[in-house]
Amino acid sequence: MKVLAINGSSRKDGNTADMLNLVLGELAKEGCETEHIQLAGNIIAPCRACFACAGKRNCVFGDDIFQELYRKMTEADAIILGSSTYSADVSSTLKAVIERASVVSDTNPGMFRHKVGGAVAVTRRAGAMNTIDTINHFFLNKEMFVAGSTYWNIAYGRLPGEAIKDEEGVANMKNLGQNIAWLLNQMK
Ligand SMILES: Cc1cc2nc3c(=O)[nH]c(=O)nc-3n(C[C@H](O)[C@H](O)[C@H](O)COP(=O)(O)O)c2cc1C
Fold it and tell me: Contact, 174 vs 29, CB < 8 A?
């Protein structure tokens, strides 16, 4: 089973990366093929609302990495979207991915049907629930099954290396990975 994690943070190898690696680590232990794409350094344009994607099964604009990202999302059995909390929500980079993926899959129905979704957020102090909600709204609008943990999948930290010290956050990420693996095994 293929699992794709997309990391919306603008900081490469920061706290969000550490948390996504924990989730993916559990999935790799269960034999899943995992990939972690960090969006840091990329500018992803917002949806242009042209609806030219209808019948095309991808965005028609190829001037950033979105087309490749979207193809990988549609090939994955599970998609984990992670973001640092920016202004009490996902990063604008991840939001652009969500906007465009939503429109392409609206105009080409069923492309995410029965995939598993997992949401991950990192925050210094507040706003992470919105981050989780924004991601879950995407999954739930696309016929996906959302995996949960023993708490919302949030870890606390500001500087790189801080979130990994959040013991409860770390436990939640590992648990999320195990729950995604369980769900994928049931669905085989
Ligand atoms: C543009 C920007 C906006 C931020 N907004 C918030 C916020 O609303 N709430 C919060 O708790 N932390 C906020 N932070 C802090 C980050 O969420 C925090 O540093 C996080 O650990 C960064 O994760 P990363 O290392 O994966 O980038 C913000 C940071 C930046 C750069």
Answer: no
